[in-house]
Every structure is written in C-alpha cells, then in structure tokens.
Amino acid sequence: MKLLYSKEELNSNHPFATPHVVAGRRMHGGFDTKGVYVPPRSSLRNQALANWQRQLGAAGGALFAADASLLTGPRMPNVEQQRLLIRNGLTRPFWNGLTITGKIEARGRILAEMQFPDLRHVVVENIDEMAIGHLGGGLLYAHGIDEGGEPDRGIGGHDEMWFVARDLVIPPGTHSDVEPPATISRPEVGKRWMPQIAQPFEGMLSFLMNLLMIEFRAEIGFANTQAILRTPGLFPDQAVAEEAAEIIGRIRTDEEIHVSSLRLYLGELRRLNLKTVDRGTTPAAPLIDAFWAGLVQWAVDEQPVLAAYAAYEPIREQILERADGEALLAEFNRLADAGAIPGD
C-alpha cells in the first residue's frame, strides 16, 4: 500500500473530458465522459487519503469523531427568512451572504502560501508515512488552491465559483460591495490552550481544529443556500437558479475532501505522543480533545447568538425602509430561529 507521495502527485488532476467553465469563466475541476463533476487535484490525493485512513484503521485508530450535526444554534437569516426577503425584492442579505462566503473562501488560499511548522519536530513517532507527514508536502497546498484558485493561470477556485453563482441569480451591480469580518475563528490571541507544547505547534493544532469547525459551519450554510436557490418561483429564471445551486453542489463535493482530510489528520494525531517544553512527552489525545470541547462550546453556545444579533439590525433597517416595513418585519421576526433576535 503506497504511503509516500510527492507534492506533484498530491496535486495531480484526472484527465477531464470537459473543462469546468461557467458564464465564460474557467473554474477548477472538470467533468468526466458522463458529465459528472470531478474535483480538482483528486487523482492521487483521494487514493493517498484512503490509504492513510486504512493504515489508521489497521492500527486501531479512526477519523476524528466530529461532523456538522454537532453545530446547533440560531441562524440569521434562516432559509425561510431569506425566502421572505427575496420574494419581497430584498435581495441584499442573500447577495451579501454569497459575497462574504466567496471572500472568505479566497482567504483560504493562505494554506498554499504560508510556511507551517513541521509536526515532525513535535511528534515523538515517525510520521513520514502518515497524512500529517505530508501537510507541508502538498496537502495544505492543495487545500489552499481549492479555496482560492490559481489566478495567475486564470483558473477560479471556490471563491470565483461563489461569485459566479451569485451573479447568475442577482445581476452584477445590483448591490454595493461588502467585506467579511476580520476573522471567523474563535479568538485565540494571547491565550495558551496547550502550554505543555511549544507555541508554534499549539498554533498548528489549533489551526487544524478551527479549520475543521469552519468547514462544518460552511457545510450547513452551503446546504441552506442550495435550498434557497432551488425554491420554485423564487428567482425569475428557475433554470439559472438551479445552475447556481449545482455550482455550490460542486463546491460541497470538493469540501468533502477537506473535511475527511482534517478528520484524518486529527485522528492520526490523537494516537501519537508530543514532545513537551520541559523535554518530556505527553499523549496528544487529551490536549486535542480538551481544545475541541472548548471550541464546540464556543461554536454552539456563544458564536451563533452573537452572529445572529450582529446580522439582525442591518436587515431590520432595510426592511423598515419600505412602506410596508412594519408588517414585513413582523413576519420576518415570526420566522426567526429561537434566540436569534435581541430581546427574544
């Protein structure tokens, strides 16, 4: 079973029968002879991930036990609220959401550009034939290019795919630009969560877990966006809206690779031991599990309400600009998730 791969192998493409082009813009990935979408850089990357997962299972390990179902809490606006707004000509919240998502995806290109610490310097065991031994050897690079594309080659990644999907259903120029928040991760500045290990490696473990949490949150948002786009009669051209939903479906297909990869990295790490700052060693599992528990608490109990409150007031102001604003706001509020509106 092959367990060592080069960066070139991990970033190799299938021989696409048809390139992925939408509205005249080249996107990554392509289609096979049956017209089925094939993710980029998945020719040998998928084989490698499967081999490393088999190796992990044979050693008694498993993928990190987490999925998007652990995320609960209110969303603002939720699917029904978005439908109400769009039916009444208020497309800015939906447009903003698609734009912000695309810009956040573009930030993901940093995974292909940053120099991350090599886990070989903190893990006691040999990791050369594990997925975590290939993070700096092609895996994080592939993840980053998936997100931010290859602009120098004129190939869009997830960022451009979101913008194209947006422009299909809401004409360009309809709304002014919008910027995402500075960060969507849990605030970590100045706080040590794993002081037993050197800070650069704590930062690496924290990064991987925050990235997995972001992927889970995105998974829910992507599904909701597809549900909105596929609502009969909501957009003037249902066929075009369906095309936009399909583009997002292709993004979700790509993201499945990212989620399974991150769960594999953390699953491998949990079985290993780490070198501590006092020149001893410690099992990685307790450190990872404790950090993850705190991250889940933030993502379930704290972040959703704060995000909902922040999103509500701008939408409320837009609604109240209309002559029928009071009645529309009352219906909007009625459809809200529990706890999503300040004062509820």
Strand numbers in spatial order across the main sheet: 1-2-3
Helix coverage percent: 40-55%
Largest sheet: 3 strands, antiparallel
Low-confidence runs: none
Q: Write the H/E string, N to C.
A: HEEEHHHHHHHHEEHH
| Mean of all residue-level pLDDT scores | 94
Task: Please give the radius of gyration in angstroms.
Answer: 22 Å
How far apart are the termini?
Answer: 57 Å
Number of domains: 1
Please name the defining characteristics of this protein.
344 residues; three-stranded antiparallel sheet; two-stranded antiparallel sheet; 11 helices; globular
Describe this structure in words.
- It contains eleven helices and five strands, in the order H-E-E-E-H-H-H-H-H-H-H-H-E-E-H-H.
- It has 344 residues and is mainly alpha-helical.
- It has one domain (7-334).
- The strands form two sheets. Strands 1-2-3 form a three-stranded antiparallel beta sheet. A two-stranded antiparallel sheet has the order 4-5.
- It is globular.
Topology summary:
Blueprint: H1 7-10, E1 18-22, E2 25-31, E3 37-38, H2 45-58, H3 79-87, H4 92-107, H5 110-113, H6 139-148, H7 158-169, H8 199-229, H9 238-270, E4 273-275, E5 281-283, H10 284-320, H11 325-334
Antiparallel strand pairs: 1-2, 2-3, 4-5
